[in-house]
Amino acid sequence: MEKNQKFKAGRPCPACASESSVVDDSLGIWGWEDWRAGYRQCSQCGTSFADSIFSPEQIGAWYSRQFSYPQYESPLKQLDARTRVSFIREKNWLPKPNESVIDVGCAAGLFLTSLKQAAPNSRYTGAELLPQVAAEYSGKRGISIVTLKEIEDHSVDMAFMWHVLEHGPEPQELLSQVLRVCRPGARLLIAVPNRHARGFDERGSQWVWCQAPWVHCVHFTSAGLSAILSRNSITNGAFHYRETVDSFHLAFLNMPDWIPTREGLLRFSELRSEGGEKDLGSFLHSWKLWGNADYLRRARLGRWLSELITSDRQRSELLCMTRLP
Ligand SMILES: [Zn+2]
User: How many angstroms is it from 52 CA to the middle of ligand 1?
Assistant: First the structure.
């Protein structure tokens, strides 16, 4: 174990601050180099969180060496960005002209690029956590990307946090940074993997959105997300649930290697191999409909089928849309 990695098995829930939690065996024990960590689950709000705390420097080092930023420019992620824009359009939540809009943890800026096409008269800035990522992607698609720290206090009308809050070892710290840059009355959207998702219930550590505890440090329930927002005086959130094109209940229809076998100690560097659902996956892959369709079409169809068979609150993604006081 590295010196900076602190084990605090009994630490309070980072969502609701309850002191009571139990080991969450279903999400596995993870390893990378000499790091080892698993999860605990809050007895109060059901949120699962890393049983170890990694320093921001350690996490930054992991992202620099291991995180696949180029994947965030792939056609699948472009489709994902478009479905996010469709969702907020359905909810009548497109930015208004001249509003200042940020996307926190924007990676290559695909979401803002799509959003700009839907609402061209707003002002868009990507906000990254690592300076080298901001520098690499800034301007590449006509969107300026800076670090969150560089954004002025109370300057933002609308902030999006698509799958970024679960990446913070201390989500309150990240949320505080975002709230600092928002004006009073600003709109905020937070989307995270849903701890009550069918993927977690049925596949546990094998599900695609169950990732190492230094990557997805917190897996929120709606009660947990509601609690951390309440602790910041935000009590008017509307909660929604979606299947997404990059993670849906029937994801093995799209990419069989998304269903790995993970037993005991998991090494992040290991390639995910087909596991217990191989036979079912192979059968469905040989099915003519899927075999003849490209993977983006399969992602669309798989998402649609997953939404049909999955109850609202068991869908993969949990979203909260709120207006700040
Ligand atoms: Zn909790």
Answer: 16
Rounded to the nearest angstrom, the distance between the alpha carbon of 222 and the centre of ligand 1 is 10
pTM: 0.88
Helix axes 171-181, 222-230, angle to 10 degrees: 50
Q: What is the rounded distance in angstroms from the CA atom of residue 260 to the CA atom of residue 256?
A: 9
Q: What is the distance between the alpha carbons of residues 253 and 285, in angstroms, rounded to a whole number?
A: 7
264 vs 205: CA distance, rounded Å: 10
Strands 182-193 and 156-162: parallel
- The DSSP element (H or E) to which 184 belongs, if any, is strand 182-193
Tokens of residue 324, six digits = 């700040």
Question: 295-324: per-residue pLDDT in tens?
Answer: 777 778 888 888 888 999 999 999 999 999
- Which residue from 158, 157, 132 is spatially nearest to 147, judged by alpha carbons? 132
Is CATH 3.40.50.150 the classification given to domain 6-323? yes
121 CA from centroid of ligand 1 (Å): 40
Q: How far, in Å, is the centroid of ligand 1 from the Cα of 2? A: 27
* Structural element, H or E, at residue 258: none
Say how many residues make up the chain. 325
Q: Is 324 helix (H, G, I), strand (E, B) or coil?
A: coil
Tell me the per-residue pLDDT of 230-287, one tens digit each, with 9 for 90 and over: 999 999 999 999 999 888 777 655 544 443 334 334 444 333 333 334 444 444 444 4
Strand-by-strand arrangement of the 48-50 sheet: 21-23, 39-42, 48-50, 218-219
62: enclosing H helix or E strand = helix 56-66
Rounded to the nearest angstrom, the distance between the alpha carbon of 113 and the centre of ligand 1 is 35
Record the tokens describing residue 81, joined without a space. 């960005």
CA distances from residue 148 to 50, 60, 268 in whole angstroms, order as listed: 24, 15, 28
Q: Where are the domains of the chain?
A: 6-323
